[in-house]
Each structure stands twice: as structure tokens, then as C-alpha cells.
Amino acid sequence: MGSAFVPNDVAELYTDTLFQIAPFTNISGLPDKLLCYVKTAESIKTLKPEVALIIIGRVNNNCNSSLNNGSTAPSPASLQLATSLLSTITTFNSSILTSLGQQAVGLSVPQIQNLTSADIQSSLGTLGAVNGWNQGQTKTLVSKLFNGNIQITDSKNLTSLGSLLPGLPSTALKNVGANILNNATSNPAFVKNLLSASPVLQQTVVQKLVSLDASPSSILNNVPDALAGQISPSAMIFGNSLNSSTIEKINKKNWKPQQAAVFFESVATSTTNYSQLPQQVIQGFSCGIENKLSPDNYTSFIKSAKGKDGSLVEGQLGCMGKNIFSSGLPADLNTYPVNALLFINTTTLDKLDDSKCTDYLQVISSANISVMKKGSVKRNGIANNVLRCLKITNGGLSASNVMFVNNLACGMSPSVISNSDVKIVEVLKTCSDLSSEQLSAVSDLLNKSTSLYGPPSSWNVATLKSLKTLPLDLNYGLLNNINRDDKKAYIQYVVTNYDNDAVKGKLATLIQNMQPTRSARGAGCTSANITLAIMQGATFPTDYTPTEFGNCLDKDVVISNLDVLASKPLPSNYLTVVKSKLNEAYPTGIPESQIQLLRSLARTYTAAELSAFNITTLDTLQSLLNPADPVWDNDKAKQILTRFLQLGGQLDNLALNAIGGQYLCTLDDSQISNTVNSTSLRDALPLNISSCNQSTKDLLYSKAKAAFSSNSNSTSAYYSMIKSYLGGAPAADLQSLASNNVSMDIITFTNLNPNSVKNLTVATVKSLLGDNTPDLKDNENSTVVQEWIASQRQSDLNKLGLGLSGGLPDTTTATTAATATTAATATTAATATTTAATTAATTKTATIKTAATPVGYIYLTAVKGAGSSINTMFFHFMKALTVAITVIVAQRHI
């Protein structure tokens, strides 16, 4: 039938339809093209092992690339087929294992548990070349290979593992010599497989390599380029001048922003050939570099970042923007990084005439507006000027407007979106940070539109696919009229084409909403018993109601395939079923090896239940706190960490990297004080402690300061390392930073301790922020800026020329006014009695000018000559007391 020329999607649709109509079709007679798309078929269950092996050979020869869309990772369909075929084979030996090739990925955990160490060793060349193992499979295979006693005696022990390497526990490397790991990492295949392992295993290897020679130049030589992101930033402090060879080595490595920030100044001041710098180095850009380069070189560097600014964040881009627009709108806008162009001075932007405004918007239309904080003055300013330049006073964007503003549509308000042409959805479906209000406006727009996508009542799977992942965020009411099979086909499309972790929660919500409404037809399982092959389906568990899910899922299937189940987008009521099956299977507690596979399932446990978990290794801790999974509630995260510490865990640098600042903040100060030391902080990646309470920030800052004090002579490196801990810095340390021209970005500034900032003078804050000082105006509503303004003299604030208001009145003026008020009060009181009393009272009142005047004396002064009633005396006393307090407060700010 010439099936080789049939498009893949057509072949898959035809095969799915064939087995829906005739599930017992003999797959042996299918053309190779169609065989590739068989997922599950009743006829597979009756295959003899020898026939299944023949079909496996055909699949290996013809299907891998088509099933996986050219990717090395197997698709859900290919996993289903491999699992179904291997389920017909009951006995495995080294010969059979070798013949399986890539289809060995379908081995179940029970099948692996029945393998012998010798058979795994003999077929290691095949098993180590398989792509797509899950964590449960690799851990079981490695454990069986070493008979539960892992011994690494040479580099071959490691490199021979191939794709099974991620199953190696990090503790297995504890006593492995650094030279063995150095030899292993010289093998590119080993490094590639290590990148699929947990961060803990990667960091363990890198830490060993660094121990060979801790000098930065040796680290560059010993740590593979792909693993550079696991090097402690504190180990990458270079001298003031780098030669071209060193810069070339730096440029080849895959750095993280925190590392690049440490050595960025050394690189930028050692070369003027900025065009050679890759994005991995440019992402370390610091605002203070402007003070180290000539104006021409600084501008040249900024221009060299064009097309490489994807990793730069708001604070960095804002600094670049200030330089770009320092003299107004430059004529060569197109030569600058487009994301930096978003950070135009608001005043400059508002004053652009129509022609220049249009030119500006056209250039920045391809920028990623999500780099700007939602609701910020600058982001709102861009949106407002889009409307101004396009002369839109009431309504939304036309189709031509949408084409013109392109990505800037992501920043439009809900009212503008709901009144725009539906073509705006073509842009919005690519936006990464739409708010719930914007998404609601999109839903309203699609609901009332009849063009482009048509009314929701006419939507089908093609419509959903054209909207990419946007339907996962829309009001589910829009999807009510869509055929259930179309929804399932859409789920399959999303699972196959998008990162599972990124969409997993949203898919779970969609599945929750489309749960079958049929009721159970009797006791027990009334649908197909859930097997590994069924779990691996892209649309699982949409064919099961919660009740059927529980009735058709056996506890033995759960414990054998926990990793697969945990990777699926299961709604909360389905997760509860899995938890109950685990409790049934493990009445005395879940084994630690299984805890490592729980992922989202772990969130169903209470803090009290988590307190009984066996958490003894970093591998377990890291798997529970995996940032790809939903965020933990603070009380549960604290319980996990507390349990780890109770069972002998140490918060060393690897543990801190696994925990991250967010979860470290859940611990009590006493726990942190006793378990986190300066050395651990020094060797860890920087921690974001913005969610900590102030006392915890203070504690961690003091430890971080001690950790990095030896690097304080290198201002740029020291600042980049201490930056994330500055929320606990006292005023004296901030004053010290101000004297070193660090050009602190406004985001870091607004996260400082308000009480520390209040003690900084206007001049000190100006020195601390440098060119970022104008950002105070755009952020004057933040708590830190508000309280700082309120503690400064208005006359000093006025010197900044930013229009900041709310400061203290000038000291001299305040004192004069207070004295005059006091004198007037006393004079009024004295007039009520005698002229002599007036003179006495006025004379006495003059003494209030001194800050040392006691309150009792103020009282006597106010009423001495009054000779009036107690009420009158009390009235004048209160007025005098108010004046005295005003004077004292004013004099405290002299």
C-alpha cells in the first residue's frame, strides 16, 4: 500500500482507528509503517515470545525515529508498544536482553528484579545504550548489577553504565578517587549520561574534580564544559587580568548566571573583543561594570549583547537601558539588545512624538515584555504608550495593530484584550506570564468571536492544537461542547510536544474537569485492569472515573510502577487513590527507595505523616524538594528538612543546593544556627532568601559575610556572592558597599531591611544605587522606599531631582516653627490673667528651645502664670507637650 510514504500523523490515526474497530487484528501482518503506531492491541497479548522478538526487531529497525519525532527520548506511544511486546516474554537471559535493543525500555521493574547480575553485566552494552529509562528502572538495574553492593574501583565501572548512570546513588561516589572521576569525565558519553542524572550526583562529581586542584585555571581544565554549571561560584574568582586563552576556555563552558556574575568583571576588563563573549558569560553582567570601562567600551559591550540578552533579568537590562537612553532616543536603536530597549526612561517615552514613538515600538515589538515586573511603572508605561502612539483612546487593537505591536500585546490590559481583534490571541498564546485577569479577557474574547477560531461550540482537536497550550489556562466552559475524543487527542498532543513538568498540573486540572460522569456498574473493576502499558498512554487516566481508577489499580502495580504513576498528570482525587494503595502495600512505612519516586504524590501526605518518612540521603531529600514539582506548603517543607536532620543529615553545600533558599527559610533560626556554617554557604550556589523572616535574613547574612570575607578585596566578586543575602545586611555594611560603586539594582534595594535603609543618608543611597537612583521614583510605593523617604529631610530628597515627596521638613524650619507656636500658646494663656504673668510665661517658654528641657518644666512653663482652672492648665500643658515632642523629633535629625 506504499505505507512508507504515508505521513506519520495519518499513519497513527489510521492505526488507532483500526484497533478501535478490530482490536484483535494480527499485528504481525501489518506494514512496518503502521506497526510503528500500534500502542496496545488485544492480539499482542497472545503473541508467542519468539514472535514478539521478531516484531521487536522490526520495530528497532523501522520505528524509533518516527515514534520519537526525531528525539532521542521515546514517545508515550513507543513506550506503550515496547512494554506491551515485552510483557509477552516471561524469561530473559543475556542473549534476549541484547536482542531487545531500544525496546528494552519497556522492561517493567518486576521483570528487572528477576534478572541476574551476570545477565545484566553481559548485556550492559545494549542496556547502557537505551534512551528513556525512568528513575525506577535505572535504580533497580544498577542495584541488581552490583548485587546491592556498589563498588566503583575504576573509571570503567562508571563509563560502562551508559544510560544507566542516573540510577547510581550519589553515596556510591563518596569514596571514589578524584582521579577515577577525572578519567571518566574525559569520556563525552559519560558526561552526556551524567547530565540526565540528578543535580546531587552531578555536583558530587564536580566537587571531586575541583578537589584535584582548586585554582580557577585548573578547574577550567578539569571540569567538562557541560558540567561547569555545578561549580561553586566562590571557586571561580580570577585575577584582574585574563589572557586570551583563559577567556576562550571560559567562553566554551555552560555557566549559570550566579557563576558568570563572579568572573564577569575580570573577563570584561581583560578584552575589548566583546563580540566573542557568548550568552553564558554575558548573563553575568553587573551594573557596576560601567565604572570599570570607558564610555565607548561600555556602549560597545552593550551592543555586543544584541541577540544574547535572553538570560538577562530586569535589573541588568535596566542598567543597559539607562546607558542607551542617557541622551534621549538613539538613532541606531536596531543595534542594541531588544529587551534592554524596553527600559526607556518613562519621561523620555512619554515625550516621544508620534513618528519617533512608532519607530521605537516597531523596534521593540519582538522584545520579551515578561522580563519586566507585572504592574511596574515601566511595563505599564510601555502599554500606555502603545495605545497613545496608535491613537487608541477607547477600545482594543485592530488586526493590523496586533501585527504591528507583536509581543507587546502580552502587556496589554484585560480591557484592551477583550476589545481587540481576535488575532491578538495568536500573540497571546505565546506569552509566558499572562495574569488570571488577562486569561479571563482572552476567554471572553474567544467566547464572543466568530472569526479565525470560530465559536467555541464548533471547536475540535484542530482548534485546540492551533491554540497550543493556551486552552489549559482558559475557562473550562469554553471546552464544554468539544467532543471528548477531541479533548483526549489534544491531551496526547500536549504530552507529546511539550515539557511534561511544565504542563503537568494544568493537564491534571483538564482531566479533572473532563472526568467521565458514568457511575460504577458493579463491584470491582468494570474497565480494563490498569497495567504499565495502559499507564504509559498519553491520555491516561482519562478513561477511568475516580472509582474505576481505584477498583482497577492493584497495589502491586502501584509499587512496581510508582515512578510512571508519579510522572502522570493525576488529579488530586486520583493521587489520593494512589496514596491509599501505597499505605495498603506498606503498612509500616514506605521504603526510602520508593519515597525517592513519589514526586507530586508526596504532596498528599500531611506534615505528621511526613515526620515518619525515612529521609536519610541527599538523593531522597532532593527528589522530595524537586523544583519541577508543585511548591510545598511551608509546614510540610519544614517537616521534611527536620526529619532529614533528625536522621543524621547535614546541611552541607550539596544539601543547601538541593533545598534552595525558599525551603531553608522554613526552618527555625535555632535550626539554621546549629546546622548551617559559613563553609557550606561559601561552597553552595547562591540562595534566594527573600521569603525568610527578618531575623533569619540577619542570621544568614552574618554567616554569608563570614563565608565571603576573604574575597572582599574583589568588590565585584564579593558583591555578586553576597548579593542574595543582603536582605539581612546592617546599615554599616550597606554604607561600605556604597563606597565601592556597586550600582545596586532597585530590585535588590527594595529587598533590603527597611530598618537598615532608613539609617542611610540620601547621599549614601545615591552612591549605593549609582545610575539606578532614578528607579527610586518608579518604586516609591514599595515599603523600603516609602520608609526611607519618610526618614529623610525633604530638602535632601529634592537634591535628587526625582520628585520624591513625603520627607521630613527642614530641621531649622521645624525648630523655628515649634518655638513660635510655643511662645504663642504661652502668650495666650498669660493674657487671660495679667501682663506680668504673660511676661513671665513668655520668658520661661524660651527655654523650650533646648532639647534637654524636661517635660515637667515644660508643664510649669506653660501654666505658671496662668492662674486658671485645672482644665485650662491641662489644655495648655498638652499643647506645650506636643510642641516639645515636635522639637525633639526634629533635633534628632540634625
What does this structure look like?
The protein has 894 residues and is mostly helical. Helices cover 53% and strands 0% of the residues.
Give the strand tally.
0
Shape: globular
* Largest β-sheet summary: none
> Helix fraction?
40-55%
| Unreliable segments of 5+ consecutive residues | 812-894
Structural class: mainly alpha
Distance between the termini: 94 Å
Rounded mean pLDDT score: 89
Tell me what portion of residues adopts beta-strand conformation.
Answer: under 5%
Q: Count helical runs.
A: 55
Radius of gyration of CA atoms, rounded to a whole number: 34 Å
List the helices and strands and how they pair.
Blueprint: H1 8-21, H2 32-35, H3 49-62, H4 64-67, H5 76-86, H6 94-100, H7 109-113, H8 117-122, H9 124-127, H10 135-145, H11 155-159, H12 178-184, H13 188-194, H14 199-212, H15 216-222, H16 244-251, H17 257-268, H18 279-282, H19 295-304, H20 314-324, H21 346-351, H22 354-364, H23 377-389, H24 399-405, H25 414-418, H26 424-428, H27 436-448, H28 461-466, H29 484-497, H30 500-513, H31 532-535, H32 546-552, H33 555-560, H34 562-566, H35 572-585, H36 592-595, H37 607-610, H38 618-624, H39 634-646, H40 653-664, H41 669-675, H42 678-683, H43 694-708, H44 715-722, H45 731-738, H46 746-749, H47 754-757, H48 762-769, H49 775-778, H50 783-790, H51 794-798, H52 811-831, H53 835-845, H54 855-863, H55 870-892
Helix pairs in contact: 12-14, 14-40, 17-44, 22-23, 45-48, 52-53, 52-55, 53-54, 54-55
